[in-house]
């Protein structure tokens, strides 16, 4: 699985349509102006007014008591796991979850917790799958202390967990004495697509975070929310891991700007993703997973090209997408991709497929 773009081989043209990831957005001039104008203090001491404003705003938006600003989504997940779990604990999550596949074994390395992967379509597991994974409590079994879901499910094709499933899973987890954590890297994509208020969507979750670098266009930053007691304990892990910052407000200002200007427009990215999916589906040999949000996954088996080979061919024409499996490509729409660029990318991909036959 490729997560970081390989360094461009010499002689490649610059990328003109960047569907590689929704993390590739650059701060807009207006966002940069907001960053320059931010009032700053010492984040570590709790006296950066812009970070404080962002945390208060996020806690209110997600209906939680408190929030903490962290440099990345990965650190939100790891701090949350460290705060919820103890060594030897078991976390239940989907088998494709970011915490299981893409965080360097962080739960094992840092907390000493094991993650058991549950299966199910679109990066989601059912209440029944969760129930089936519950072990009888005994001194043989690992203490099962945390259930984690990813909204939207990245490797599940950007699928949105239905609210009823989220609520059923959270209620059951709590009945079993487990805590609930939501990896909300793309939470606002889910709330915009489903038309559900963020606080309502995450009501069943003890901890939840939003990434400001996924489609929201900020250069860095994520905010983890939960009860005051939880966030108080999370702060110690933030400190221990070196996640406490100084004039962090310069980045929090970008996140505040994104909340004001880049959330509602996610609907545009979702519409562009549907146009992209329809265009790709018309190319012989490509089958497309119908997108629910801004991620478009497609299968290249019928073209005779691996996803990586096709990506390399179109990259020579200035179009970038990522290979997430041997024949599974992913194209992301975001702030810096226009409808015109989508049409451009589809024709470049079509040309790359048809000329290699
Ligand atoms: C990107 C991502 C993360 C990690 O976020 P970073 O800000 O890149 O550390 C976690 N979970 C999911 C689902 C993601 O897509």
Automatic annotation (TrEMBL):
Per the entry, which co-factors are needed? pyridoxal 5'-phosphate
Question: What keywords is this UniProt entry annotated with?
Answer: Lyase, Pyridoxal phosphate
Q: Where is the Aromatic amino acid beta-eliminating lyase/threonine aldolase domain?
A: 19-300
Using the record's annotations, give every residue carrying the modification N6-(pyridoxal phosphate)lysine.
Answer: 214
**One GO CC annotation:** cytosol
GO biological process terms held by the UniProt record: glycine biosynthetic process; L-threonine catabolic process
Instruction: Give the domain of life.
Output: Bacteria
Q: Name one Pfam family in it.
A: Beta_elim_lyase
Which InterPro entries does UniProt cross-reference here?
ArAA_b-elim_lyase/Thr_aldolase, Low_specificity_L-TA-like, PyrdxlP-dep_Trfase, PyrdxlP-dep_Trfase_major, PyrdxlP-dep_Trfase_small
Q: Please provide, alphabetically and separated by semicolons, the GO molecular function terms listed in this UniProt record.
A: L-allo-threonine aldolase activity
Q: What protein family does this chain belong to?
A: Belongs to the threonine aldolase family.
Note the PANTHER family from the entry: L-THREONINE ALDOLASE, L-THREONINE ALDOLASE-RELATED
Subunit field text: Homotetramer.
Per its record, how is this protein called by name?
Answer: Threonine aldolase family protein
């Amino acid at each position: 699985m490729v997560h970081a773009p390989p360094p461009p081989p010499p002689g490649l043209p610059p990328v003109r349509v960047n569907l590689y990831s929704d993390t590739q957005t650059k701060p807009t001039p207006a966002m940069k102006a907001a960053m320059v104008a931010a009032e700053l203090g010492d984040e570590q001491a709790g006296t950066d007014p812009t970070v404080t404003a962002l945390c208060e705003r996020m806690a209110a938006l997600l209906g939680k008591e408190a929030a903490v600003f962290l440099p990345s989504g990965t650190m939100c997940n790891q701090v949350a796991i460290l705060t919820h779990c103890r060594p030897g604990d078991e976390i239940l999550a989907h088998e494709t979850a970011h915490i299981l596949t893409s965080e360097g074994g962080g739960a094992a390395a840092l907390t000493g917790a094991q993650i058991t992967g549950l299966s199910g379509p679109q990066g989601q597991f059912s209440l029944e799958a969760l129930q089936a994974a519950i072990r009888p409590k005994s001194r043989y079994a690992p203490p099962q202390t945390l259930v984690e879901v990813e909204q939207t499910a990245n490797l599940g094709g950007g699928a949105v967990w239905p609210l009823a499933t989220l609520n059923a899973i959270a209620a059951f987890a709590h009945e079993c004495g487990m805590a609930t954590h939501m990896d909300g890297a793309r939470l606002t994509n889910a709330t915009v697509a489903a038309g559900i208020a963020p606080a309502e969507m995450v009501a069943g979750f003890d901890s939840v975070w939003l990434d400001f670098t996924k489609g929201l266009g900020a250069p860095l930053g994520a905010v983890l929310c939960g009860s005051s007691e939880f966030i108080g304990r999370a702060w110690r892990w933030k400190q221990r891991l070196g996640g406490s910052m100084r004039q962090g407000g310069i980045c929090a200002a970008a996140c505040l700007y994104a909340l004001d200007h880049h959330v509602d427009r996610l609907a545009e990215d979702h519409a562009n993703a549907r146009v992209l999916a329809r265009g790709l589906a018309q190319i012989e040999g490509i089958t497309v997973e119908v997108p629910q949000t801004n991620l478009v996954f497609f299968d290249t088996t019928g073209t005779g090209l691996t996803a990586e080979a096709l990506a390399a061919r179109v990259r020579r024409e200035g179009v970038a997408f990522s290979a997430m499996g041997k024949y599974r490509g992913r194209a992301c729409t975001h702030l810096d991709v226009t409808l015109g660029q989508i049409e451009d990318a589809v024709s470049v991909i079509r040309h790359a497929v048809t000329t290699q036959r």
